[in-house]
Amino acid sequence: MQRVVRSTIIDAPIERVWAVLRDFNSHAQWHEAIDASRIEGSDRSDQVGCVRSFTLKDGNRIREQLLHLSDTEYKSSYCIVDSTVPLQRYVAHITCKRVTDSNRTFWHWESTFSTPQGMERQLADLVAHGVYETGFRNLRRYLQTGGGTGGSALQRPTGVALPSRRVSQGRYGDATVLTAGNAECPAPGEGEVRIQQRAIGVNYLDIYLRKGWLPHMLPLPGVLGMEAAGSVIDFGPHVSGLLPGDRVAYLAPQPGAYCSVRNVPASCVVRLPAAVEDTTAAAMLLKGITADYLLRDLGHVGPGTRLLVHSAAGGVGLIVCEWAKRLGAIVIGTVSTEEKARLAREHGCEHVIVTRDYRFAQAVQRICGGADVLIDGIGQAARDENLAALARRGHWISLGHVSGAVDLPPGALADKSLTYSSPLVFDYVSTQSDLQARAQRVWDALANGTLKPATVERYTLDAAHRAHERLESRDTVGSLILVT
């Protein structure tokens, strides 16, 4: 058996490189030796077991099968099934690793095979130079010219204003104040990234801003939205580590995401792993990071923690329930319908209380003797029940107040040595390193099965007002997003 090994450094982020290499049929787009290629049958090009059938420009034909693919380890393996090139028992392995001191990718490619007697050197040179080293050179060129992104980002002129569809409001009020129209996105300024957005997260914070409850965050006229996912178009001075076409998501402390093209500070941007779809990222980045700091930083949730989660079938609620269950907590949730109760149970909520009138304290005390941690977005209407449901030294985390701000009477917390906090997600991602670390924990939880991809309802930008009406109705499950 012969063994051929080659490695190189690609001047691009690992997510960008892997997005190309994990597609078993992409080589026809970037490797100059390939004339045409197709995946046989109806298999996906990233499905283990799929077979690609391709023709080389010299007329030879090869069929190869994908044996292994790992989006968490950035590894794949494949073998030759049939070939007019006399490579026998050919098995190849591709491994990518991050370069620790820069935003580049180490790419290792190796194979073992046997050959007819007398052809050992000829075929080893063919694999080493004609396949591997040529492939390294070709992929570099492909990525530098916007390959692997459909080219759409690089086909747009850079450094000039670009058209953008935008949802804005000129006054505070109900969902009818949201109006879609055409606008322009200027060229990105210093430290900014311009993004072609494909999916935009809708959060209850958007409703608070729309109503004028936090006017300092949304001066009028204004554009809602704190998070989105899409691709980099271009960027301003002093931005490093990003390339046009990179798939990204962001979580920004300034609203403005309800549009098709937007500039955001590069410090708010994270790259998307190849396995995370745009819709999943837009539905889960803010909510997943919120769940991360609730469980890790505020709740200190671990084995045996008695956790009460209101709106357990909502976007944040489902993520919290899943993650807390994996951490070993006793998870209790409140929901308003039996349908939501079923979904909450599927996502790790062990005990579900169905109530539309915020009566739950007796059930909580009966189930577990009181909650150590309570995650609440209801507010004033559930105040007394929350106080009654908490165990001694319990912690009440207020994420919102759909029924009105909480008015705590004097001594209400001291009666049971309770504590109360009202956190804001942006204080937990105040640096880019914090944002990257928390986002990575969300992506890792998706990859290892701790979290399921979000249950998503989709609306167009022009239907943003309907998305808001739906979210306020209490009839939704999971997350809502806008698509462009």
CATH topology of the largest domain: Alpha-D-Glucose-1,6-Bisphosphate, Chain A, domain 4
Q: Give the number of domains.
A: 3
Strand content: 25-35%
> What about the largest sheet?
7 strands, antiparallel
Instruction: Give the uncertain stretches in residue-range form.
Output: 150-156
**How much is the radius of gyration in Å?**
26 Å
- Overall mean pLDDT stands at 92
Structural class: alpha/beta
The residue fraction in helices comes out at 25-40%
CATH architecture of the largest domain: 2-Layer Sandwich
Number of strands: 22
Give the number of helices. Answer: 11
Strand order of the largest sheet: 1-7-6-5-4-3-2
Corresponding CATH superfamily of the largest domain: START domain
Coarse morphology: globular
| Spatial separation of the terminal alpha carbons | 53 Å
What is the top-level CATH class of the largest domain?
Answer: Alpha Beta
Write structural notes for this entry.
The protein is of the alpha/beta class and 484 residues long. The chain folds into 3 domains: 2-144, Alpha-D-Glucose-1,6-Bisphosphate, Chain A, domain 4; 163-277 and 456-483, Alpha-Beta Complex (Quinone Oxidoreductase, Chain A, domain 1); 290-427, NAD(P)-binding Rossmann-like Domain (Rossmann fold). The protein contains 11 helices and 22 strands. The chain has helices spanning 14-21, 27-30, 120-144, 204-211, 278-298, 315-327, 338-346, 361-368, 383-389, 432-447, 464-472; strands spanning 2-10, 34-39, 51-56, 61-70, 75-83, 88-98, 105-114, 162-168, 179-185, 192-202, 227-235, 247-251, 261-265, 269-271, 306-310, 330-335, 351-354, 371-376, 390-398, 419-421, 456-460, 479-483. The strands form 4 sheets. A 7-stranded antiparallel beta sheet has the order 1-7-6-5-4-3-2. Helix 5 (278-298) crosses helix 6, helix 5 crosses helix 10 and helix 8 (361-368) runs parallel beside helix 9. It is globular, with a radius of gyration of 26 Å.
